[in-house]
Amino acid sequence: MLRYYLLSLASQQVDSVSWHQLIAPGYGLIDNREGIKKRYAYKTYKFMVQTLKNAQFLRLDIKRGYYILQFLVENKLLQIHWSQKPTILKNEEFFTVFSHEGEKIENQTLSIGSSPIYIYIKDAV
After folding, report:
1. What is the pTM of this model?
2. How many domains does the chain fold into?
3. Would you tell me which of 5, 12, 84, 97 could form a disulfide with 65, CB atoms 3.0–4.6 Å apart?
4. Cα(82)–Cα(65) distance, integer angstroms
C-alpha cells in the first residue's frame, strides 16, 4: 500500500488516491467488529500522511530495483528508500532515519528491503 501511494505521488499524473474504507470489519485499516482495532498498516498510513502532507516532491530515482524518492519537507531533504532485493546502506551521522511505521532507527547499517524507510538528511538544503 505504501509503495503504491508513493509511486502514484511520484508519477505526478494522479490528482488523488483514497482508501476505500478506512474503518471496515475485516478489511479496513481499522476493524470495528469488536470495538476499535487498528491494524498493522494503520501506523504506516498515518505516518505517511503526517510526513508528506506538506511535502514538495523533488524527484524519483530507480536503479536496478532500488528506489529513492526525494521530497522537501519544512526546508529539510527527505529521501524514502526501498529495494526489490535486500541491500545494506551505512547509516551516516547526518541521517535521521525512520521505519515505514515512524519508529526511529539508529542502527549502524540500514537494511533496505521492500518496506520503505524515511531518511532525513541534515543540512542538505
Report:
1. 0.89
2. 1
3. 84
4. 9
